[in-house]
Amino acid sequence: MLSLSNTNENSTILNTPVVLLTLVFITLIRIYTLFVSPIELSVDEAQYWHWSQNLDIGYFTKPPFIAWTIGLSTKIFGNEEWAVRLFSPIIHFLISIILWITTKFAFGFKAGRIAALLWIFIPAASLGSFIISTDTPLLLFWSLALLFIFKTFKDNSYISASFAGASLGLAFLSKYAALYFFILLILWWVIYDKGKALTLKKLLIVLISSIMMAAPNLYWNYSNDFVTASHTISNANLSEIIINYSNVIDFLSSQLLVFGPIIFLLYLFIIFNSFFKNQQFSLLGMLSLPIIALITVQSFLKIANPNWAVTAYISATLMISAYAIIQKHKMLRLLTKFGLFINFVLSLFILKITLTGSFYPIQLKSDPMRKNLGFEALSTQIKKTFDKNQISKLVFINRGEITRFYYYLNKIDNKFTNKILLKTNSKSPGNFYEQNYNYDKTNHKKDEKIMIIKRDLNFGNDFANLKETKFIQKISTNTIKNLKRTYYLFEGKIK
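and the corresponding structure tokens:
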């Protein structure tokens, strides 16, 4: 049985001031990088920014906390890319501190310091510090909920249980993947704990307080015909499920990069050797391995994104840091240090990508960074043509384009609000823009000019309400390696 006592072990290298200064220094470097990075907002980031300009308690595809976060930052600092992303490195710093406190509280002082370093350097946290996503606040409140669960073990306090539940509710307001925590906590209690560490009353307090915190978004979904649930089911597209073993290989391989190759393999070894050693390890195991297993099974049926299992690595970080110290096994400690070093190197590479906007010197068939370059320059050209031709509205064909252009056009001139629409052939809305900025559901004036922006010259017959349609301009800009991003502008008059 592993000891739960705080073994105040000391280290000349991993002393508290050094670790704390490392966390602060890395965070400041990442914040500075946000200021100088050429990488423009991704589709999702631009959409979250748009949500933040229209604050609500729910949105078409996601809960609201991401919009609240961006709204706070941009209200203070303005609508720059770095301001949109500012909270990401700060939140990952806070997660490191929370994991430090949690591990120290449960397993010992030195283990806490290792946990903090492990998190700040894992590739998921390194990359996540340079983008803003729903995963970012989710991981913050997930880690906070886990801290208060452990505190409830220790002090058997109703207050600690309430804070655990409130944190879990905030996690739900960040991303619906927080449901994993709800379900797995209950399963852990039924299968393993049975009231030993967490009494039934405390468990009910956790669940009730979490539901109370999540209630505003639950009400929003009820008031909007559960549009988020409908969207999720639609995205699942069960009719197109095809068993594909290569998807599994791709997903599991991606986890080596999400958590770090050595650290991920070390986690798999540790979890099968410590899952049911005590309440702490059994809970950590229940909040990590089933998530990875579930997404792995899902990848058999459909492509699974690498970040879908990221919540598992909160518990995984705690398990590795605690196990390596408590077991006092030289090889485990050596592998932990080596894994930490590899992750540090990977974090430097991610930093380099963010600073330059390119994977160079690594040669890729298609540089992923290219997707997030060129939109501001193109927006300047669109604005010039818009004014010159006295256009009334801009119309885009897909969500990926309208999101970025909406942000950059409004950044240039905030008068573009409500002048940008999405043309879709869908009978029911498939995204936020189809629901709220639908070309076909907008009142148009006779003879008003609109401009359609497309990636090709095939205009098609999608605009039955137009007359005098004509091609007016080709616009383009360089992205990387002399690769161009090109769009074609068409003009039409409403009949």
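(Above: one complete record from the training split.) Confidence is low (pLDDT under 50) at residues 1-12.
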